[in-house]
């Protein structure tokens, strides 16, 4: 083989390598999508109430302070496992009562403490948000958050 790389050889190496790595990238995208859809997400248990709870989560901007499965701000606690931390992952009524009590007590007015705004949710919204947070607790989260405390 020649010791000198010609212009056409360099071009062929570049295009060949680019196509090769684009194919690998495409395969990884497909594999990741398949993993998320079939393994980690518990899509069979999605209900209209869970979807409405997610919409409340988005509309109220909860992700601006809280994180959910590692996504979002780290200003306030992780909420992907909040019903587990409260010890009510099997009891929807208790989870709703805990969520309602916590949110109704905000802002706490304690000096030096970060304050959560009052959102004035109605009973249906509390139910939907509870269903959403309970659903997020069922997602296969690959051991996230690393600490139980969020």
Overview of the molecule:
The protein is mainly alpha-helical and 150 residues long. The protein has 2 domains: 1-40; 46-150, Cytochrome Bc1 Complex, Chain D, domain 2, CATH 1.10.760.10. The protein is 52% helix and 3% strand. It has 5 helices and 2 strands; from the N terminus they run ααββααα. It has a two-stranded antiparallel ribbon with strand order 1-2. The longest helix is centred in the first third of the chain and has 34 residues, at 7-40.
Short key terms for the protein model shown above:
mainly alpha, Cytochrome Bc1 Complex, Chain D, domain 2, 150 residues, 2 domains, 52% helix, two-stranded antiparallel sheet, 2 strands, single chain, 5 helices
Could you outline the blueprint of secondary structure elements for this entry?
Blueprint: H1 7-40, H2 48-59, E1 67-68, E2 71-72, H3 82-86, H4 92-104, H5 123-136
Antiparallel strand pairs: 1-2
**Mind describing the biggest β-sheet?**
2 strands, antiparallel
**CATH class type of the largest domain:** Mainly Alpha
Number of domain modules: 2
List segments where confidence is low: pLDDT < 50 over at least 5 consecutive residues: none
- The CATH topology of the largest domain turns out to be Cytochrome Bc1 Complex, Chain D, domain 2
Write down the overall mean pLDDT: 90
The backbone outline, from C-alpha atoms, is elongated
* Helicity range: 40-55%
State the CATH architecture of the largest domain.
Orthogonal Bundle
- The CATH homologous superfamily of the largest domain is called Cytochrome c-like domain
Distance between the termini: 59 Å
The H-and-E topology, N to C, reads as: HHEEHHH
- The radius of gyration is 23 Å
- Briefly note the structural class of the backbone: mainly alpha
